[in-house]
Amino acid sequence: MSPHNLEGRLTTYLTLRKGLGMQLGAESTVLADFVKFVGDQETTGAVTTKMVFDWLDATRERQHRPIASRRLSVVRQFLLYLSAAVPDTQVPEVRLVASYRRPKPFIFTPDEIERLLRSAAELRPGDFRSVVLHTILGLIAATGLRASEALDLDRSDVMPRSAPETLLIRDAKFHKTRIVPLHASTAQQLRVYAGHRELLGFGLQTTAFFVSSHGRRLSYAALNESFRLILGKAVIKPHDGSNKPTLHSLRHTFVVSRLRRWHEEGLDVEARLAHLATYVGHVDFRETYWYMTATPELLGAAATDFHAPTCAGGDE
C-alpha cells in the first residue's frame, strides 16, 4: 500500500472514531507516527508484523515498555480496521509485548464509607468545618462526582428552583455541563448544610456552596489534607495489594457499586452503561466500563449474570 493511501485510510479511521464520540488525544499522534514510519520504508505492499515491531524498536529509546504495549494496542485497532479493506494486512498479537499491569484500585466497603462520614462529622464537634467535610464527602460518595466538580459548585447550582433535587455541574472535565439527579436523602442533607451556611452569613461572602471557615471557596488542597486526617481517625487503610485510598476512590467506589448492583439484580448492564457514563461525566462509555475489572466481587457478579447460549432445540 502506498504511503498516500495509508494516510487516507488513517484519516478515515480517525474521522470514524471521532464521529462515534471517542476522544482521540494521543492516539492520533501515535498512529500518525506509525504511518509515517511505514511510509519511510518505501514499500508498496501490505503492512506486516515486522513493520510494526521495527517501528516499536525505533521508538524504544524514548518509550518505556508499558507504553510500548499501549502503543501496540492502538496500532492493532487501526490494523484490524485496515484489514477489512486490505486482507493481506498483518495484525500482531498484543501479548508479544510485555503489558502494563494495572494497579489495584482502592474500593471502600459500605462499613468504611459509614466510618469515613462519621469521622468527618466528629473531626471537630460543633465546628462548621466538620459540617462541610461531612457533607462534601457524603455528596461525592453518593453521586460519584469528581472532587473538583463538588468544590466548583455554586449555591445556584445546588437544587435550582427549575429542577429541584438536582445538581448543575458546569463546564466540568472536557468542558461538558450536565444535570445530576439526587436521591431524596442526599438532597435533604444538602438542604441541611445550606441552612447552616446561610445562618453563618457565608451567602453574603461568596457564591461558593462549599466554603472554608474563612468564607472562601473550599480548596482541593484543604479538602485533601482533611481527608487524610479523617482516614486516620476512621482507621481506613489499603486492602490487600490495593493502592492507598484517595478522594478519587470515592468516585471509583460509586461506579463499581452501581455496576455490581445491576449485575446482582440481573439487569441489562450494557443497556444502562451509557446512562451511568453520562451521570458521572464520562465522554466515552468505555471509561466507565474500565471499572469492570476493579474488584473480584464485581467480576463475580458479572460472571453470575452471564448465561451461556443454549443449543438449538434445548430448554432455556
Number of domains as seen in the coordinates: 2
Task: Report the total helices.
Answer: 13
- The gyration radius over C-alpha positions equals 25 Å
Number of strands: 2
Distance between the termini: 49 Å
Broad CATH class of the largest domain:
Mainly Alpha
Major sheet: order of its strands? 1-2
CATH architectural designation of the largest domain? Orthogonal Bundle
What is the overall shape? elongated
Q: Helicity range of the residues?
A: 40-55%
Which structural class best describes the helix and strand composition?
Answer: mainly alpha
Quick one: biggest sheet? 2 strands, antiparallel
Order of helices and strands: HHHHHHHEEHHHHHH
CATH topology of the largest domain, by name, is hpI Integrase, Chain A
Q: If you average the pLDDT, what whole number results?
A: 81
Poorly predicted runs of 5 or more residues: 301-316
What fraction of residues sit in β-strands?
under 5%
Could you state the CATH homologous superfamily of the largest domain?
Answer: Intergrase catalytic core
